[in-house]
Amino acid sequence: QVQLVESGGGLVQAEGQLRLSCSDSGRTFTSYILSWFRQAPGKERAFVAGIIRSGATTYYADSEKGRFTITRDNAKNTVYLQKNSQKPGDTAVYYCAAHRTGGTLIYARAAEYEYWGQGTQVTVSS
Length: 126
Hints:
The protein is mainly beta. It has no helices and eleven strands.
């Protein structure tokens, strides 16, 4: 089981950068595919990016390609989301999620993920 804790959220100006982190204190971090989702007020939780257990393959929502980068450091039990060229539309609560698997398929559906962090608020001002 993982216990995910996000950090790094805050207020950023449009076109600015922000790096979110999600850490796990357990010993099974490498058993999980990890993804970032976000949820804006009044909207459903939406997939942003995912990364397989080794970190060798990533997958992004079409709207985020080229602006966001997901990476993971298995030695530190941490996954990151680097967010560049921020837009006001990126304002949301960002969640880290984990799916335990022996495979390499990254799901974009929130229902596929068993574990979630508490979320971190990102606000982008224009």
